[in-house]
Amino acid sequence: MPDGRAVIHADSAERWTRMTLVEQLANVGSEVERAIRAHGAGNRARWEHAQARALELFDLTATDSRWRGARRREILRAREEFCRLFHAPDAPSASATGLRRYFLAFAVAARRRVDPTG
User: Residue 25 and residue 118: Cα distance in Å, rounded?
Assistant: First the structure.
């Protein structure tokens, strides 16, 4: 991890580099969704874990050497919005909805690529 935090799942970094950007962002979105739901339910322990995992996956994606320029900026912007959702007093009320919509598109695209019947 760039900031020296421990990796939650040690094998993630190696597996992560074998995924496409769409697959990576679909997985990030899964953790983002978990964090949003746990926060909404007031489950602090689950929220903290999901938030940490989402940040780990954002960081793995942003540091993937395949993604440079505009792609990396977009990844980092999504990470910024994720952090803002929970930690900024001026976060727009529609932030969670916007993040969900953004990441749902990657989940749908990843599913279509994996499922030949899709």
Answer: 19
